[in-house]
Known about the structure:
By secondary structure, the protein is mostly beta strands.
Amino acid sequence: xxxxxxxxxxxxxxxxxxxVQDALADGAAxxxxxxxxxxxxxxxxxxxxxxxxxxxxxxRLDAGAGPHGRVSLTARVRxxxxxxxxxxxxxxxxxxxxxxxxxDSPVEALGLALTGTHVSAMTRGxxxxxxxxxxxxxxxxxxxxxxxxxxxxxxxxxxxxxxxxYGQLGLRDLRLATHAEGTPYLLDDGRLLLTATSxxxxxxxxxxxxxxxxxPVTHALSHxxxxxxxxxxxxxxxxxxxxxxxxxxxxxxxxxxxxxxxDTSRPMRITLAQTTAxxxxxxxxxxxxxxxxxxxxxxxxxxWDPxxxxxxxxxxxxxxxxxxxxRFGPALATGPDLDTLTLRAVDTASQECExxxxxxxxxxxxxxxxxxxxKDRQAYPVCDLDLTRLGDLPAPYxxxxxxxxxxxxxxxxLLATFDGTQQGGRLAGYGTHGDxxxxxxxxx
Length: 444
């Protein structure tokens, strides 16, 4: 049965929200993705702080503003108060310091998160974590500087707080880790290894890459680690994401999209990391080099969503080519190595089609197929290597642009994808998606 004949249905959904995911290794922040949280004192008052060299970030819960409190956010850099709010597209803050109207429900915990250049004050109540105030530190402080990150610590007015690596409000861009030949990489206990984009409290530049395990039988999902990146041409540590993790002999290859700052003044790119470290667990900061995928004949403003497969003596590299923000479609390049790639096919007709995935179709004689996710058509197109559409994957299509992340398990298929369900309130807005949606193939 070919991929265009496989029918899938939803069997599980997950939303693993966490402000503080794990304690910091050696107590030091390796990337600007950290958070602190604490419960209010009996009188309802609370302050939590992130403090580094020449910097103090403070979220405050004012108990005198009624039973629900009032939240404010301040940032002092080199003795001066930062008064610039988050970027306009993320919503303006009310009040000079980000003071917002009181939360709608009693506050169970107050949190403070640094995600990239953004700092957010958040509360946890009946609706989970909600962003109450935002500040953008870009231009005031280089939060990606590793020397500064090493000075970062946390405190609270109660002394009873938890701090560590920032977690996620949602997950998107789920991608199976694979062997170079395209088969899923399995942990020793048989679980599937995936990478995902851990959504921050805002747009794409508040997110980062995380590593997860998915049980193919129970569909349980568990966090295993976080990955951050040094770029070849820009100092600092970035939360780049939308990636593919590949086991190639005794090394890992990790191809990643440079979404970590979303700088539209230059084209979006793809980088490549190579390491023998164990990327299946823990926190890692990886050095990268450019992965120069071709856009021959296309005036491109960016490339992203890499997927790498080795077919004998050649590499097949799937990715997305954007002709403008946001108009994009899948592309496929081939070459004897990852430094010598030639464009084979590109789709410039689609409006919003991404998540390019290359895999074999056992129902078609193990022929290679290119899958993608078309928001235009609300479908997962199945194509040959020339991107000629052969049909669609018969599967439910959630909101947003869910990737077609497929694994052959036993005599059936498992699909792990996501939707556009947001979390964290109006201020956090788009970029906080989504729910993890798991599907399985069913008999006709």
